[in-house]
TrEMBL record, chain A:
Keywords: Cell membrane, Membrane, Transmembrane, Transmembrane helix, Transport. It comes from Paracoccus versutus. This is Peptide/nickel transport system permease protein. It comes from the Bacteria. One of its GO terms (molecular function) is dipeptide transmembrane transporter activity.
From TrEMBL, chain B:
CDD domains: PBP2_NikA_DppA_OppA_like_7 (cd08512). It comes from Paracoccus versutus (Thiobacillus versutus). GO terms for biological process: peptide transport. Residues 1-26 form the signal peptide. This is Peptide/nickel transport system substrate-binding protein. The lineage of its organism: Bacteria, Pseudomonadati, Pseudomonadota, Alphaproteobacteria, Rhodobacterales. GO terms for molecular function: peptide transmembrane transporter activity.
TrEMBL record, chain C:
The lineage of its organism: Bacteria, Pseudomonadati, Pseudomonadota, Alphaproteobacteria, Rhodobacterales. Belongs to the binding-protein-dependent transport system permease family. OppBC subfamily. NCBIfam families: Opp2C. Pfam families: BPD_transp_1, OppC_N. SUPFAM superfamilies: MetI-like (SSF161098). This is Peptide/nickel transport system permease protein.
Length: 362, 532, 301
């Protein structure tokens, strides 16, 4: 259900920044950087505050998870105080902020581990999946979108449209379970649920937490093949959803360019269709396209809870959801900070690319 | 189900056409037992804190207790373990246990009476969820250092009442009675936590397995302890993988990627029936599926209403459909396998009788609310009840919530109709008697944890006293009779209605031998499991 | 429609403002009608509305009637789409469920874009610190894991289909706000806005009278394209047990129920899945068609 957000089109967002005189440029850049940094900090701070408030107003009692079903009122009260819940909210928030600044996300009550330790484990799992998924989405989606636009109304366009529509409209858990049944249960082409086969579990030393990378670092080809066979199906599934989005957006950007005057001029000048499309029009859609890809990547980094459940994938989506339902706010806050930071960073990156690539913004 | 659409057959046919090699059937390593299970409930592996089903499964295999129950020989009852023998004083209030010599913790430290005493003191002082099991004998954080002492290789427990020996030993055999390695744990203590933070994710036991890793919501890995005093386990490694979905567990099992799958739904169990590489083991567990009717509700507090509800439940219908093979009708609060259990199941689904009872009492309409946890069986049971109640003019409003929210409302005595499970805390009948049939204070602010209190049921004094007396009865036969009497009276009047007892259906490869989930009184044990 | 009306609508020189507007609408309709796929989408949705409206008369059986003896029956003459785990007729449940689907879609489509439109246009039109503050808030909501936000809202408000829908609406406005702001920024400096301002129109009037109408078209397109996502999100909440309450036949909850039977009794999950698919598809087709009509930048030939 965490589908790429098709409404977002920051490529069109805001007017291109005005060109400045060279003399004031360094200063302006510096100021812009400070502005970006400030807004980044503000966004993160706001994110934390909102999460914190949600945690406190939510009628899920975190103490229950700690003391369990059989606790007496006295045990409950003791735990309530130990968790600092008797203090006013603002004090709790300040205390939490002070701890976060020291790099301490606290301990998760639903896993018994330090939140930072949990995140180091679950985030790479999601990152690996999201990266591969986005790669599939880009490698297939972009060419598909370009060709669909170039041959508008042709059969490729129709196929691309159907592929995308199906991608938008399929419940992911249904597709996931069916995929498992067919490719794993019946054909045996891919690995089953989980990140690794049992034989390889814990065999590759953890460096990055990305098993594909770690097994390559260790030079363990068998482990790499095993990990790949496990990731290919869920990544393919996420890739399909991201493909649907990316191909539609690519097509729409391309159509806009192809109807522009310079394309007409280029055609009149007798440039080959190939050069018109790839050399001119495509180059011009790079900027919004990068933004779209970054956003789609960002939404996959949130972790697709349903995909993770179906494929027993120990990712951040499942982690945060489970924590939330248990009222485990340390874990939720930590997870939100990581996801939020990624989002802000991706936003920033596409912003920089915007300025670098866009011919109008010098 | 014979006439279902041949989807799998169709897919299989296309698969054969597509894949010349066909599906490869994997096999797990010969010295490793791989289990697919839902283990996301574990929040701690500290025996002084662990109180979740899957957490106890792990703790049981990492630690030894003073006395224990052998899951493969449940009839034998309590057996010596780290304590070789024990004796009870004349007045029945002092128990002296003699420790076995030569047993070592995983760290290499010897297991001493000092460790045993410290473990019990620690559990009481930590005062986490399972502490009440020990506190029943009069221990408190203040007095436990005097009440639990050691002398050489002897451990001395001083109780506040002459409790039945079986009762005390049954409690010591529960996970909270595990003996932990004092030196190792204290080396990791932070402040006043008795090493709780460290022990939550590490092990300091003497049991048949050591903890290799625990990755929450992902996997638990155990490694065999080759020097185990009762002999090294047959298998070198046990890996428990968290697999949420039954379908996924089944696929893993069918592909040979796991040896055991523990959370298959009834339909998935049926689905693998024809597979001759697999087998299914049924094991009666201690959990009771019950319905609580809050006596705060004006309608539900009428005795006729309680009586009618007992006839509105479609016991047989549920048992043969969505609960098939995994729950059996059981209308008593003591599960089969417990001392004093009763097998009398007097109620059947009888709409006419229920209607008669209600009409005689002048009840022809009414609305009640139920808050159920978002677990398939509970929601289906609630819907079945909803349909039955509709037939006699009653409306049941179903509200589905997450576990934490339901518990929150239940603790606040705000659930009119509760449908859910109760799992016994230790192997003695008092564990269920004390919660279903005991409520010393029915006041709103009493803040008790008994089910009777949560359903606002003022248990008659006579029954309260009977439950208390049963813990002091030294003669086991008399004790059994006392529980049978309590249950017989309970069936007449109680608004908390036991309906089913859990049967765990464990699906496994044919070569897995000696599996046990722990029966109704214990948890899983891996030591004796072999693969041929 | 008579020839004269048609001519009046398509007139090159409309006499009144009303004629011009209606003419533009009619032009749009003609473009839309030429798009066969979009028409298919529209037809499906009209059908959906009819089915929802006449559910009690169309449904062959009571959607709540249980029969444990008849559970998990495959599609047959008696139960066209089979029965579910409690022996209820899946077709009847789907038919009644269409009402819930329409409710979800309708409510979210009303709330989210309106909040987004308001926030986005105000931010874009006012500029300065108002813009900064509003956009920071939007960013915070955007950076928040969406499902988590929705879950938190549902948990806070209590489970139930109404609250689930509200949560979805509250979490899905930020992208609309961004879109509306972008549109506003391009409109803001347009000559006719300056002209209106010179005529003494206040900022509120400019916003409501001149900015909003221009933003609405692109928002409508996005909403239509986004509908599929909303149905699926509601289904996702149902999957986690936080959507519709039993025994409501919400499609997402039905799939979620059916997933435990997916390996042997595929129709229990597949039928509602198919229903969601068809309706989502219809919304997407409609959205595509609308884009061609309303959003000229989508490229019209």
């Amino acid at each position: 259900m965490v589908q790429p957000d098709m409404l977002d089109q920051p490529g069109r967002d805001g007017p291109p920044p005005a060109a400045g005189a060279p003399s004031g440029r360094a200063m302006r850049l510096g100021r812009r950087f400070a502005g970006v940094a400030l807004s980044l900090v503000l966004t993160l701070l706001g994110l934390l505050l909102v999460t914190f408030v949600i945690g406190r107003i939510m009628p899920i009692d975190p103490v229950l998870k700690v003391v369990g079903e059989r606790a007496t009122q006295a045990q409950y009260d003791a735990a309530y105080q130990a968790m600092g819940l008797d203090k006013p909210i603002w004090q709790q928030f300040l205390r939490y902020m002070a701890e976060v600044l020291r790099g301490d996300f606290g301990r998760s009550i639903s896993t018994g581990h330090a939140v930072a330790q949990d995140l180091r484990r679950v985030f790479p799992a999601t990152l690996e999946l999201a990266t591969l998924g986005t790669m599939i989405g880009v490698l297939v989606g972009v060419p598909l979108g370009v060709v669909a636009a170039a041959r508008r109304g042709g059969w490729i366009d129709q196929v691309a449209r159907v592929v995308a529509l199906v991608g938008y409209s399929m419940p992911i858990f249904w597709l996931g379970l069916m995929g498992l049944l067919l490719f794993y249960g019946i054909l045996g082409w891919v690995g089953g649920p989980g990140r690794q086969g049992i034989v390889y579990d814990g065999m590759v030393p953890t460096v990055t937490g990305l098993i594909l990378v770690d097994s390559l670092v260790a030079g363990d080809w068998a482990a790499f093949r095993d990990a790949f066979s496990h990731i290919v199906l869920p990544a393919g599934l996420l890739g399909y959803f991201s493909l649907a989005y990316i191909s539609r957006m690519t097509r729409s950007f391309m159509l806009e360019q192809l109807s522009a005057e310079y394309v007409v001029t280029a055609r009149v000048k007798g440039l080959s269709e190939r050069r018109v499309i790839w050399g001119h029009a495509f180059r011009n859609i790079l900027v919004p396209l990068v933004t779209v890809i970054a956003l789609s990547f960002g939404s996959l980094l949130e972790g697709s809870v349903l995909t993770e459940i179906v494929f027993s994938w120990p990712g951040i989506g499942q982690y945060i959801t489970k924590a939330l339902l248990a009222g485990d706010m340390n874990a939720v806050l930590g997870g939100t900070v990581v996801v939020g930071t990624c989002f802000v960073a991706l936003n920033l990156l596409s912003d920089i690319l915007y300025r670098l690539l866009d011919p109008r913004a010098t | 189900m014979q006439n279902r659409f041949p989807l799998r057959a169709l897919m299989l046919a296309s698969a054969v056409a597509l894949a010349p090699a066909g599906a490869a059937w994997a096999e797990t390593p010969a010295d490793t037992l791989v289990i697919a299970h839902q283990i996301d409930d574990i929040i701690s592996l500290d025996p002084g804190q662990s109180f979740e089903f899957s957490g106890q499964d792990v703790v049981r295999n990492l630690y030894d207790r003073l006395v224990d129950i052998d899951p493969l020989d449940l009839a034998a009852g309590i057996k010596p373990s780290l304590a070789e023998s024990w004796e009870v004083s004349e007045d029945g209030k002092t128990i002296t246990l003699t420790m076995r010599e030569g047993v070592k913790f995983h760290s290499g430290n010897p297991v001493r009476a000092e460790d045993a005493a410290w473990s019990l003191q620690r559990a009481v002082k930590l005062n986490k969820s399972p502490a009440f099991i020990l506190n029943q004998f009069g221990f408190t954080a203040e007095n436990v250092d005097e009440r639990v002492t050691f002398d050489g290789n002897r451990l001395v427990l001083q109780l506040d009442q002459p409790y039945a020996q079986s009762y005390v030993l049954n409690c010591l055999a529960s996970e909270v009675g595990s003996v932990v390695d004092k030196e190792t744990v204290m080396a990791h203590a932070e402040g006043e936590d008795f090493g709780n933070a460290w022990l939550s994710t590490n092990d300091a036991g003497s049991g048949p397995f050591t903890l290799a890793t625990w990755r929450p919501n992902e996997a638990v890995q155990l490694t065999a302890n080759p020097d185990y005093w009762q002999g090294a386990p047959a298998l070198a490694r046990v890996i428990v993988r968290h697999v949420q979905e039954s379908s996924a567990q089944r696929l893993l099992l069918e592909q040979g990627d796991v040896d055991v799958a523990r959370n298959l739904t009834p339909t998935d169990v049926e689905g693998i029936a024809g597979n001759d590489r697999l087998k299914v083991m049924d094991e009666l567990r201690g959990r009771i599926l019950y319905m609580g009717l809050s006596q705060k509700d004006p309608l539900l507090s009428r005795p006729e209403m309680v009586e009618a509800m007992k006839y509105l439940i479609d016991y047989a219908g549920m048992e043969s459909s969505f609960l098939k093979g995994q729950w059996k009708v059981h209308q008593n609060f003591l599960p089969e396998g417990y001392l004093g259990a009763s097998d009398e199941n007097p109620w059947t689904h009888d709409i006419e009788k229920a209607r008669q009872i209600l009409t005689d009492a002048g009840i022809t309409s009414g609305t009640v609310r139920t808050i159920v946890r978002d677990i398939r069986e509970y929601v289906d049971a609630a819907q079945t009840l909803q349909a039955a109640m509709a037939q006699v003019g009653l409306t049941l409003e179903i509200q589905q919530m997450t576990g934490a929210q339901v518990l929150d409302a239940y603790r606040a005595r705000q659930v009119p109709v509760f449908i859910g499970e109760w799992g016994p805390d230790y192997a003695d009948p008092h564990t269920n008697a004390s919660t279903f049939a005991h409520n010393p204070n029915n006041a709103d602010d009493a803040g008790l944890s008994q089910l009777a209190w949560r359903n606002s049921w003022a248990v008659p004094d006579e029954m309260n006293r009977a439950v208390e007396a049963a813990t002091l009865e030294g003669d086991t036969d008399k004790r059994v009779q006392m529980y049978l009497d309590i249950q017989s009276q309970y069936r007449e009047i109680a608004p908390i209605i036991p309906m089913f007892q859990k049967i765990e259906q464990v699906a496994m490869q044919q070569n897995v031998q000696n599996w046990t989930s722990g029966g109704s009184v214990s948890s899983v044990l891996y030591r004796q499991v072999t693969k041929e | 429609m008579t020839r004269t009306t048609r001519a009046w609508l398509l007139s090159d020189a409309p006499q009144t403002r009303r004629q011009a507007r209606l003419g533009a609408l009619y032009q749009g309709w003609l473009t839309f009608r030429a798009n066969r796929l979009a028409m298919v989408g529209l037809a499906i949705l009209v059908l959906l509305v009819l089915v929802a409206g006449f559910a009690p008369w169309i449904a062959p059986q009571n959607p709540y009637a249980q029969n444990l003896a008849q559970r998990l029956q495959p599609p047959s003459a008696q139960h066209w789409l089979g029965t579910d785990a409690l022996g209820r007729d899946i077709l009847s449940r789907l038919i009644f469920g269409s009402r819930i689907t329409l409710f979800i879609v309708g409510t979210v489509a009303l709330i989210a874009p309106v909040i987004g439109l308001f926030v986005g246009t105000v931010a874009g039109f006012a500029g300065g610190w108002v813009d900064q503050v509003l956009m920071r808030i939007t960013d915070i909501f955007l950076a928040f894991p969406k499902l988590i936000l929705a879950l938190a809202f549902v948990a806070a408000l209590g489970p139930g289909i109404g609250n689930a829908v509200l949560a979805l609406a509250i979490t899905s406005w930020p992208p609309y706000a961004r879109l509306a702001r972008a549109e506003t920024l391009t409109i803001r400096r347009a000559d006719y806005i300056a002209a209106a301002r010179l005529q003494g129109a206040g900022p509120l009037r400019l916003l409501i009278g001149h900015v909003w109408p221009l933003c609405v078209s692109s928002l409508i397109v996005r909403v239509a394209l986004d509908m599929a996502g909303i149905i699926l999100s509601a289904a996702g909440l149902g999957f986690l047990g936080l959507g519709a309450q039993p025994p409501m036949p919400e499609w997402g909850a039905m799939i979620s129920d059916g997933r435990s039977y997916i390996l042997d009794f595929w129709w229990v999950a597949a039928m509602p899945g198919l229903a969601i698919f068809v309706v989502s598809l219809a919304f997407n087709l409609l959205g595509d068609g609308l884009r061609d009509v309303l959003d000229p930048r989508g490229g019209r030939e």
